[in-house]
Specification:
The chain is about 40% helix and about 15% strand. By secondary structure, it is an alpha/beta fold. The longest helix has 21 residues.
Length: about 350
């Protein structure tokens, strides 16, 4: 018999976390009998209805496996190969998807400086030139991330400003919502208040980072964008044969506000972690903590030792800026243990 050891946790990513027990229970309950495949099952119908109840009754909803696929397929429905997507320099589609948007869409990414993760109308405007000129790619979409890769959050007013500017200039607005639940909790607003109600045309609706196994959705608020998406999803190898097991995860997430409970806890743990680190001389926070990410400058030489016990990523190698992410299952003891280790490591260095 294999002895169960104390569960290890990390601050590397909310992707490192396990699956929420309520999601697992829902999957086990759905694992009974036969239902139609490829989304023709009652679970998928219910999950779509629940997503619409949160985001807008007119939303078109399609479930996929991964966040990268959601982003690429979403944008592929918005942009032609000779067109371009304007995004933050830190955007996941730019830094962490191995060129997938460019490969599968054939488009170009136009980058906006984003020292705090967010882009502005002024930054978008810089790319609106050579319109109609066949020697230059034509801007067609803007992509923003909520919460951003720096853990900051766009307010509804900021999103509306970007959406209005985009639409006034014949651009579409995409949102990468990998951590949208953390953003909504941070802002204390309903999900539709930062999506359908403020002009977002298409959303990559993430669940994996908030306690699902592999559950993402593509949601279109601009309905014409969805007219051939069933074909795009199949051609993009993202149509699940046993769709019920993706759908039931969203049912669980959107039942009894599990999404809010999980994201609220993760955000609280990030605030606790930031507060502890802020009190340590030699550790310097670099970003405001809005959601469940904490960015901190640490003495370079102590990082390997810290990572041996509490894995995390170095976001910026040049200045030893660490990224610490909390999850639905992060515990207060985890935070205090890590902070104590940082304090001890910095103290030993200063002796």
């Amino acid at each position: 018999m294999v002895r169960k050891q104390k569960a290890a946790r990390a601050f590397a990513s909310d992707n490192w976390a396990g699956v929420h027990p309520e999601v697992l229970e829902a999957m086990v309950a759905a694992n009974d009998g036969h239902v139609q495949s490829y989304g023709g099952d009652p679970y998928t119908n219910e999950a779509i209805a629940r997503v619409r109840s949160e985001l807008g009754e007119d939303a078109e909803v399609f479930f996929v496996f991964s966040g990268t696929a959601a982003n690429v397929l979403c944008l592929q429905s918005m942009v032609r190969p000779y067109e371009a997507v304007i995004c933050a320099e830190t955007a996941h589609i730019n830094t962490s998807e191995c060129g997938a948007p460019e490969k599968h869409i054939g488009c170009k990414l136009l980058i906006v400086p984003s020292p705090h993760g967010k882009i502005t109308v002024a930054g978008i405007r810089e790319h609106l030139h050579h319109l109609g000129h066949p020697h230059h790619v034509q801007p067609r979409a803007v992509s923003i991330t909520q919460a951003t890769e720096y853990g900051t959050v766009y307010t509804p007013q900021e999103i509306r400003e970007i959406a209005d500017f985009a639409h006034a200039n014949s651009l579409l607005l995409h949102m990468d919502g990998a951590r949208i639940f953390n953003a909504a909790v941070s802002l204390d607003v309903p999900l539709r208040a930062i999506t359908s109600e403020v002009g977002v045309d298409a959303l990559s609706f993430g669940g994996t980072k908030n306690g699902l196994i592999a559950g993402e959705a593509v949601v279109f608020f601009n309905q014409p964008l969805a007219h051939d998406f069933e074909f795009r999803r199949m051609q993009g190898m993202q149509l699940s044969s046993k769709m019920r097991f993706i759908a039931v995860q969203f049912i669980a997430l959107l039942t009894d506000e599990l999404w809010r409970r999980s994201a609220s806890h993760a955000n609280r743990m990030a605030q606790l972690l930031a507060g502890e680190l802020a009190g340590i001389k030699g550790a310097t926070l670099t970003q405001p903590v809005h959601a469940n990410e904490v960015f901190v400058l640490l003495p370079r030489e102590i990082i390997p030792g810290l990572q041996e016990r509490w894995p995390f990523h170095v976001w910026n190698e040049a200045n030893a800026e660490a990224r610490l992410i909390t999850s639905f299952d992060t515990e207060e003891d985890d935070v205090m243990s890590f902070a104590s280790l940082v304090r001890e490591a910095i103290g030993s260095r200063q002796k």
